[in-house]
Amino acid sequence: MTEDARGSRATEAFFGRRRGKTLRPRQEALVDRLLPRLALDLTAGAPPLATLFDPEVTDFRLEIGFGGGEQLLHESGRHPKTGFIGVEPFVNGMAKLLSALDENPRRNVRLHDDDATELLDWLPPASLTGIDLLYPDPWPKRRHWKRRFVSRSNLGRFARVLRPGGRFRFASDIDSYVNWTLLHCRGHPAFAWEAASAADWRTPYEGWPGTRYEAKALREGRVPAYLTFTRR
């Protein structure tokens, strides 16, 4: 456990630094004005997720570590009747998404800018239809492997909040983390791997917009993997 950079609470340290370059004035203003309107209040008990979105929203998905928010923005536009919860502790990534949401508002997006495990423990049981963990920090050094988000304890958290038939999607260009995730998920009784051939995990997800991390990986010759696991 480490002390949160803001001093608000201890975290499980699955993410690194909280800030990068100094935010521009407009970005700072959006963090101060727009983020509080979209952020979930975890200080009280979790209500039914349907109460957090418009009435037509019936399914709920979570993206952990959305980076610049490309996938979250794309998917929330494609699926207006699905409620999306995005988690990103990195302030600059959050500011980038807020800028996009300010220009193209979404009524089906809520946000959390802190530790994802805190949110997972707060969510009601069997409340999500999907969880996305896309290009997470691979923590390549052996001494840092305990900081990889995919772990037995976090898969237990996923299993608690996913509905039966719900999906956990994991994408990465780092082979060691892909293998790590396969071993952990195949060893967990709550999850089944959806793959019949290599093409199943080399083919991007339906409607996949790509991300800047993926583009960099492809430029550098790394081959992404797209894994999907179903909650039994």
From TrEMBL:
The chemistry this enzyme catalyses reads: guanosine(46) in tRNA + S-adenosyl-L-methionine = N(7)-methylguanosine(46) in tRNA + S-adenosyl-L-homocysteine
Which InterPro entries does the record match to this protein?
SAM-dependent_MTases_sf (IPR029063), tRNA_(Gua-N-7)_MeTrfase_Trmb (IPR003358), tRNA_methyltr_TrmB_bact (IPR055361)
Pathway per its UniProt entry is: tRNA modification; N(7)-methylguanine-tRNA biosynthesis
Tell me the residue numbers annotated for binding substrate. Answer: 141, 173, 211-214
Q: Which GO terms describe its molecular function?
A: tRNA (guanine(46)-N7)-methyltransferase activity
Q: Which PROSITE patterns match?
A: SAM_MT_TRMB (PS51625)
**EC number from the UniProt entry:** 2.1.1.33
Tell me one Pfam family matched here.
Methyltransf_4
- Source superkingdom: Bacteria
Q: What does this protein do?
A: Catalyzes the formation of N(7)-methylguanine at position 46 (m7G46) in tRNA.
Question: What is the protein's given name?
Answer: tRNA (guanine-N(7)-)-methyltransferase
The species this protein belongs to is Nitratireductor arenosus
Tell me the lineage of the source organism: Bacteria, Pseudomonadati, Pseudomonadota, Alphaproteobacteria, Hyphomicrobiales
What gene makes this protein?
trmB
